[in-house]
């Protein structure tokens, strides 16, 4: 059984607010203030959920340096009021950081949502039945 602490609950809320502000900032034509708040809330929520030391360890691993550089550089560009370029750089860094996680997330989504055509498309078997 996994025990979720009060700080982790606060972190989940902060990450939710961060994602909301990021989405809302993109929908409002890359509003730099909303994107900056979204980035700050998202990173603060991540720190609350997994802790400061584990967050620093995740971002500053040797094999993830390039992804961290682009992600945090994009956050910095958004904070310096260059929202479009910052979000592009940040998105590239996000993909580099979490590319090993995407196949696992896709497998989880496909197992949770049973859509026969998509399951057949993404499984390794050659049969569509």
Give a description of the structure:
The protein has 129 residues and is mostly helical. Helices cover 76% and strands 0% of the residues. The chain contains seven helices and no strands. The chain has helices at 6-27, 32-50, 52-59, 65-79, 83-98, 102-112, 116-122.
Provide mean pLDDT, rounded.
88
Count the helices. How many? 7
Largest sheet data:
none
The count of β-strands is 0
Outline type:
globular
Could you estimate the helical fraction of the residues in percent? over 70%
Termini separation (Å)?
Answer: 37 Å
> Any idea what the radius of gyration is?
17 Å
> What is the H/E order?
HHHHHHH
**What structural class do you assign from the helix and strand content?**
mainly alpha
**Low-pLDDT ranges:** none
Beta-strand content: under 5%
Condensed summary:
The protein is built from 7 helices and no strands. The chain has 129 residues and is an all-alpha fold. It is globular, with a radius of gyration of 17 Å.
Main attributes of the structure:
129 residues, 7 helices, globular, 76% helix, mainly alpha, single chain
Q: What are the SSEs and their pairings?
A:
Elements: H1 6-27, H2 32-50, H3 52-59, H4 65-79, H5 83-98, H6 102-112, H7 116-122
Helix pairs in contact: 1-2, 2-3, 4-5
């Amino acid at each position: 059984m996994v025990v979720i602490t009060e700080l982790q609950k606060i972190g989940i809320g902060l990450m939710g607010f961060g994602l909301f502000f990021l989405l809302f900032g993109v929908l409002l034509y890359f509003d730099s203030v909303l994107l900056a708040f979204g980035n700050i809330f998202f990173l603060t929520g991540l720190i609350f959920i997994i802790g400061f030391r584990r967050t620093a360890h995740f971002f500053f691993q040797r094999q993830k340096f390039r992804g961290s550089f682009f992600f945090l550089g994009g956050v910095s560009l958004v904070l310096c009021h260059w929202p479009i370029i910052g979000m592009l750089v940040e998105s590239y860094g996000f993909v580099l950081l979490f590319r090993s996680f995407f196949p696992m997330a896709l497998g989880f989504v496909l197992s949770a949502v049973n859509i026969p055509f998509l399951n057949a498309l993404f499984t390794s078997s050659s049969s569509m039945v």
